[in-house]
């Protein structure tokens, strides 16, 4: 201690270092020990890999595909015949053949327009047919031609009518995306639940639903877009957040292709890689180690595994990079606090010297 009762500068600095170091060790002990085991060997305890794991030269036989949201399916109408009596709707096509007309014949296919009418031309006018059964259509057309035609009425027209095309077929056929609730929409024919079904089961479910309005319906179903299955590439990082990227699964992915989709390994990555494969009814995943040098430098296919939906390609961070990151995360706050403490101590000492009328170099 100096003659004026003040402590020397180096003593203040040493006391600050000891105090902040003790506080840091206390915080580390309270926050829990960082798993150094996870740093050097973060691989979870998994079951041994299967012998028949597929690779790039021998792909695995995938199980049946189960539809889920947001997959897209295509539905094609093979045989759709309405149940009698069929009620006409907008956009239906009806074929009319009328005997007993004069200069302008009525022998064509007419579309039920959005207003619910068919247009027979300027001579015969329009007829409201929406909501009319096909059995009653000839009678309605005959009455219109006898009493309601615009320019020319017919004495005794003979009308034959048939359904040329159902407008609702356009609502049934085409692409349908499975919604979050597992349903697809078939227009005026309602909605069908297809989540968790195979393609064949989906076809049967749609045909059963359509059979309520159609006579023995037959359709074809195929998958247009596989959107519900993913695989993941995970880059480990102890200093920062781990990077997780999901890629849509198409059925032909391998470990090398997965890393290629990430534009290669990052500078902080090691060449220690494995595939973690989830297993149903098990608490331990299947761990498939990857020999990266063999896969890349020597084109060895054994560990270039054929990926399955849900696989995680895990890339371990370089050990020294991980240690450097941990040290920076641990000691970064301490160095900032110590820097602020040194600046404060220097300012206080300088102020004390000013108050004493000089500079103390002790």
What does this protein look like?
With 362 residues, the chain is of the alpha+beta class. It has four domains: 9-31 and 331-356; 36-62 and 229-317, Outer membrane lipoprotein wza domain like (Outer membrane lipoprotein wza fold like, Roll); 72-82 and 169-225, wza like fold, CATH 3.30.1950; 93-165, wza like fold (2-Layer Sandwich), CATH 3.30.1950. Helices cover 30% and strands 25% of the residues. It is built from eight helices and 15 strands. The protein has helices spanning 9-31, 36-40, 137-148, 169-172, 199-210, 255-261, 292-297, 319-356, and strands spanning 72-82, 93-99, 107-111, 117-119, 126-128, 158-165, 174-177, 183-185, 191-193, 214-225, 230-235, 243-248, 269-277, 286-291, 312-317. It has a five-stranded mixed β-sheet with strand order 12-11-15-13-14. The relative contact order is 0.16.
């Amino acid at each position: 201690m100096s003659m004026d009762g003040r402590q020397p500068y180096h003593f203040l600095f040493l006391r600050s270092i000891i105090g902040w170091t003790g506080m840091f060790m206390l915080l580390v002990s309270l926050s829990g020990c960082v798993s150094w085991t996870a740093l050097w060997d973060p691989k979870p305890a998994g079951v041994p890999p299967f012998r028949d794991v597929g690779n790039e030269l021998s792909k695995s036989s995938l199980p049946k595909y189960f539809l889920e949201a947001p997959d897209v399916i295509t539905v094609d109408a093979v045989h759709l015949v309405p149940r009698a009596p069929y009620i006409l709707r907008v956009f239906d096509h009806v074929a009319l053949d009328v005997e007993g007309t004069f200069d302008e014949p009525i022998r064509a296919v007419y579309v039920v327009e959005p207003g619910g009418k068919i247009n027979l031309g300027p001579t015969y006018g329009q007829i409201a047919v929406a909501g009319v059964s096909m059995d009653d259509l000839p009678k309605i057309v005959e009455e219109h031609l006898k009493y309601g035609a615009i320019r020319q009425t017919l004495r005794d027209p003979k009308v034959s009518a048939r359904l040329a095309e159902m407008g609702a077929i356009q609502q049934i056929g085409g692409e349908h995306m499975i919604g979050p609730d597992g349903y697809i929409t078939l227009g005026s024919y309602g909605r069908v639940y297809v989540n968790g079904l195979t393609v064949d089961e989906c076809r049967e479910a749609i045909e059963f639903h359509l059979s309520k309005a159609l006579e023995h319906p037959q359709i074809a179903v195929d998958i247009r877009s596989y959107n519900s299955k993913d695989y993941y590439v995970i880059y480990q990082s102890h200093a920062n957040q781990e990077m997780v990227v999901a890629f849509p699964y198409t059925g032909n992915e391998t470990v090398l292709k997965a890393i290629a989709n990430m534009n290669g390994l990052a500078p902080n990555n090691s060449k220690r890689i494995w595939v973690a494969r989830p297993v149903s009814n098990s608490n331990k995943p299947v761990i498939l180690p990857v020999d990266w040098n063999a896969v890349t430098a020597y084109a060895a296919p054994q560990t270039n595994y054929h990926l399955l939906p849900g696989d995680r390609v895990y890339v371990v961070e370089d050990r020294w990079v991980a240690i450097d990151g941990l040290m920076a995360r641990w000691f970064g706050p301490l160095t900032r606090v110590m820097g602020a403490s040194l600046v404060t101590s220097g300012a206080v000492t300088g102020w004390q010297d000013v108050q004493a009328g000089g500079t103390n170099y002790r």
